[in-house]
TrEMBL record:
<protein>
    <recommendedName>
        <fullName>Tc1-like transposase DDE domain-containing protein</fullName>
    </recommendedName>
</protein>
<feature type="domain" description="Tc1-like transposase DDE">
    <location>
        <begin position="30"/>
        <end position="137"/>
    </location>
</feature>
<dbReference type="GO" id="GO:0003676">
    <property type="term" value="F:nucleic acid binding"/>
</dbReference>
<dbReference type="Pfam" id="PF13358">
    <property type="entry name" value="DDE_3"/>
</dbReference>
<dbReference type="InterPro" id="IPR036397">
    <property type="entry name" value="RNaseH_sf"/>
</dbReference>
<dbReference type="InterPro" id="IPR038717">
    <property type="entry name" value="Tc1-like_DDE_dom"/>
</dbReference>
Length: 197
């Protein structure tokens, strides 16, 4: 998730050709994100890490392990929590298995994997889409400058709420306990700041 603006536009035959799409930025930096959502109102709705990707620093298994270790060590994960994750190769690698065992043995956290090719059922994917839409709005309304992708995305990610996470989980068909739903809905007018590492 590095580009805020599309590079192509769909052209429907018979209609005028649309103007070329805006690249939005001349900034050559690219960023990647790791994130974890929560419905617990005593935790941030979104815990995330953003880093600049370079040839020597791509999204890999080490970044994945570091992210979850930071989440566990900072108290974002509690005994009995379940982490739903997709089948991205580093999640299923030897390092990923070591991480899974470590989180279970030392923190009582269980990792559950979605079926292959079903990352659409991962609520974090909705967060990225929601944040990118809001980032485009911030730029279009000139609240922020498109040349600073990092600042724009940080502002957009900080906008994610527990109510957003609840809506995404319900959309994906996850069963949400009535008590959790009620607490999120009653809390929706307040917000715990999103935490980033």
């Amino acid at each position: 998730m590095t580009d805020l603006f599309c590079k192509k536009q769909r052209h429907i035959p018979g209609l005028p050709t649309p103007p070329p799409p805006s690249t939005g930025s001349t900034n050559s930096k690219h960023y990647s994100w790791f994130g974890m959502t929560s419905l617990r109102i005593d935790k941030p709705p979104l815990f995330w890490k953003m880093y600049e990707t370079t040839k020597g620093n791509s999204q890999d298994g080490d970044e994945h392990v570091d992210f979850f270790m930071a989440a566990a060590e900072s108290g974002q994960l509690d005994y009995g929590d379940v982490v739903v994750t997709d089948n991205w190769a580093p999640h299923r690698s030897a390092r990923g298995k070591e991480l899974e065992d470590y989180l279970f043995d030392y923190y009582g956290v269980c990792m559950v994997y979605l079926p292959p090719h079903r990352s659409d059922l991962n609520p974090i994917e909705h967060c990225w889409g929601r944040a990118k839409s809001y980032a485009r709005y911030l730029v279009a309304e000139r609240f922020l400058d498109a040349s600073d992708t990092k600042d724009v995305m940080e502002a957009a990610l900080n906008r994610i709420t527990h109510a957003d996470i609840l809506a995404d989980m319900q959309h994906d068909g996850y069963g949400v306990e009535e008590s959790t739903r009620v607490s999120v809905e009653s809390f929706s007018k307040r917000s715990i700041p999103v935490e980033k590492i």
